[in-house]
Amino acid sequence: MRVLFIGGTGNISTAVSRRAIELGIDLHLLTRGHRVVELPTAHRMTLDIEDRRQAVDALRDQHWDAVVNWIAFEPRDIERDLELFTGRTAQYVFISSAAVYQKPPSHPVITESTPLANPFWEYARNKIACEERLVEAYRRDGFPITIVRPSLTYETVIPVPIGGWDNYTIIDRMKRGDPVVVHGDGSSLWTITHADDFALGFLGLLGHQQAIGHAFHITSDELLTWDQIYQAVAAAAGVEARIVHIASDFIVAVEPGLEGTLRGDKAHSVVFDNTKIKRFVPGFRATIPFREGIRRTVHWFESSASRMRILPEKNAQIDRILAAYGDAASFRHEV
Predict the structure, then answer these.
(1) Helical pair 13-22 and 195-203, crossing angle rounded to 10 deg
(2) How far apart are CA 30 and CA 47, in angstroms?
């Protein structure tokens, strides 16, 4: 199978690329070359796909069994891809996001038929607009779409909403014994999926004729509270987390930039029903528990000094939230 990944070297897509190569897929990566990842048998095209002339020249005479766009975020990206790949691929896979699902959810169990609506996060609204344009192209012109909605998926990131992601800051903070902020009371439920597990479900959809026109989410079935998630991160770092619980609305009032990731996503308990992906890919089952996966991730960070970046702005953000909460608590006590 001849497959093109637009992207393919990111947090989720690198694991999928590795697994695709193991399965014997003829994998081609189109990237800007900013991130170097060892994928020795992949064919590489280094260009900026947003440069229309360059992209048309590179892809004009190419035909693919599947094209996967890992880095499409706005409807204009979809319009470009429709121009580039109509008539040139048997399947076009759009990487959307589980953040597109209704927020706040009217029911905690999320299926692919859960309504799409997110008034709190522009990122999610743009993904919804992308999906809508692709569905229109499928219904009107037969463009062969498959939509995939990852939730919080990790391998080379620390997957916590306040202080985490592609740097070592939250781990360093925990090791120094500094407090960390957990939204709400820490008891709401969430699902975190290792990229290696995601890859198993995802690759089963490539070349799957019955997947055309469908949307899927692919997540672990492991349910954890946010306290358990932070405690597992701390355990992977060899320490205990000093957790301070603060209401999401209070956090967003102090740091409005966190509204999307909290009120538009992680502040709500959700349970992802993976019946559909298991029906289409019968061999799919997530097997890496978070406590084990996050140990691998922390080890990955600590295996290279260059990965152990500590961002002062991340610490400053947490400290501002804690200071504001402390001031509010003092005021309530005085009253």
Answers:
(1) 50
(2) 7
